[in-house]
Amino acid sequence: MPEDQADRPELRELLAALAGRFAGAVLASVVDEGELSVRLSKDALASALRFLKEEAGFNALEDIAAFDNLGSAAEGGQRFTVVYRLGKFPGALRARVAVDVGEGESLASAVPLYRSADWAEREAFDMFGVRFEGHPDLRRIYMPDEFEGHPLRKDFPLAGRTGGA
Amino acid sequence: MELREYDLNMGPQHPSTHGVLRLKLAVDNEVVLGVEPVLGYLHRGMEKLWESLTYTQVVPLTDRLDYIAALSNNLGYCLAVEKLAGIEVPKRARYVRVVLAELQRLASHLAWLGFMANDIGAMSVLLYAFEAREDVLDLFEEYCGARLTIHGIRIGGAVRDLDTPLVSRIRAVLERIPKRLEDVRALLDENRIWKERTVGVGRIAAAAAIDYGLTGPGLRACGLAWDMRKDIPYSSYDDFAFDVPLGTNGDVYDRYLVRLEEICQSIRIVGQALDGLPGGEFTAKVPRVLKIAPGEVFHTIEAPKGVLGFTVRSNGTDKPERVKMKSPSFINLQALDHMCRGNLFSDVVGILGSLDIVLGEIDK
């Protein structure tokens, strides 16, 4: 790929620091194309994000993407995966933090660390029903408040509300 | 005068929300205490729909996200899919894309300039800005037939090649724009009313802007030189010499200056891309049915409104498992509350305008 960056040694150092600090919580990791990717157990999420922001200098939370693993052979075997995209600017380093979360379980909110997590977590809640503990105001963001169900779940039909599609 | 705190509703049908955005404003007389945007009036469930379409069928739907800058959405999505599928885009195609993307930035910033000035009451600027934007839209029409939901970039390359007549027309349009910008700047830069409505209004400090995830001209107006075209170059942007215009105060006036200067930089980039247009194909050979092995990528571009990202997860079929869009307007709008607090109610329209949001990509 022409746009890829060369391998960045600082990401390998960061991974070693992360694995040392959160021994047992780092379930998988890859350093590739200028990006560190880790899969964490969900209990370590808040402290790992705090470490990445305050000690490793990842000052921006660029995006939070939730995935429904229903019907796919997902690594963690849980219903949902939530992926946090962190960025360090200037320097243009990126980190991908993935956590698996089961249905009815919740994750620690990233809002105390990054204000940009506010609407992103509301979106994940609205579309997938993933709850974030400690979010100041976890409401739906796109769908009406009285809406039932979470549209981006794989078992939510494309047309209608119960079947078809 | 009696002090009164009350809530005020603005939108979803309001000419200055540029779409269907509703704002719940808490005000104390004329001072804004807080703004809560209410979203979803234009929510079309794009991300759900994309899961039922093939990778190729998704591309034209991305035109409808940020419909003021359709080509930037095309580019963001196509680059993510190409990264996931390992498709190598020919150099000529990358240059054609840069030409299209920078012309799109021009058109988007010119539309913003017109709307923004109109919101503040400088109606003649709208006419000057749109005259210039029409010129650019005519180029798009000649290139691909459309003026608004432009579909110019496809997976693997572009819709068609840039032929010699079109290249000379692009050059002619680019020559006319600086004079038009000068006319607008003569009207606005030192205009007392314009400055009173913009200087020191809607300020955000650099640290708060980072915390809110602000990107694009709004962030650069705070003095932070973050631009994906420089930081994480894509589509051969590292071949071109251009500056990243910066502001200092992070207010509405600086956002105006940054965008106007970005127009000049875009003209520079297009000129270089046309001069150095390499030979070769304008598109890669892409299988008609594109099946992508399971994987996940995140790719970002510097769209006119800020950093536009696409997360694409594949599952081995010809349809994506999930496409998640990181929309710059959605993230920038979160900072509106912070920017408006303590400002006058009458400035909300100007601050909102300075963010350059498009509801098509906020509501998805």
Give a nutshell description of this structure.
The complex is a heterodimer of chains A (about 160) and B (about 375). Chain A has about 160 residues and is of the alpha/beta class.
SSE string of chain A, helices as H and strands as E? HEEHEEEEHE
Give the neighbour order of strands across the main sheet of chain B. 1-2-3
Query: What would the CATH topology of the domain at 9-104 in chain A be?
Result: Beta Polymerase, domain 2
Tell me the overall shape of chain A. Answer: globular
| Strands ordered across the widest β-sheet of chain A | 1-2-5-4-3
Quick one: CATH superfamily of chain B? Cytochrome-c3 Hydrogenase, chain B
Terminus-to-terminus distance of chain B: 44 Å
Computed over alpha carbons, the radius of gyration of chain A is 17 Å
The overall pLDDT of chain A, averaged over residues, is 85
According to CATH, what is the class of the domain at 9-104 in chain A? Alpha Beta
Helix content of chain B: 40-55%
Task: Classify the beta-strand content of chain A into a percent band.
Answer: 25-35%
Describe the biggest sheet of chain B?
Answer: 3 strands, antiparallel
The span between the termini of chain A is 37 Å
CATH architecture call of the domain at 9-104 in chain A = 2-Layer Sandwich
Structural class by secondary-structure content of chain B = alpha+beta
Spans of chain B with pLDDT under 50 lasting ≥5 residues? none
